[in-house]
Write a structure and sequence with these properties.
Length: 121
Amino acid sequence: MIKKTLLAILLFVSNINFSIADIESGKKVFNKCKSCHSIKQEKNKLGPHLVKIFGRKAGSIENFKYSSALKDSGIIWSEETLKGYLANPRKYIPGTKMSFAGIKNTDQLNHLIEYLKKDSN
């Protein structure tokens, strides 16, 4: 019984450490994004701010000029839709104005999503 409890505690702690590492790695990946996007302030830059992005309809920030393709996409930003878009924006939404080529490394993309989930709220 003690061994099972100890094992459960160790697994829990290792998952916490892995999650923290993911978030820290994601913060580094976000350096590619921060010149165009704000994550902590509802302030648009070259791109729209990312505050509260999860659950938000694509192209819905007021006072930002989105492409028609993005506004008309019907996408609600989730982990899945963000991964698809950030991997290759122009392929995911043809006609988007976002000039970023995408994040091809799956680990970097997953870390970025973890960072966005933590810091965009």
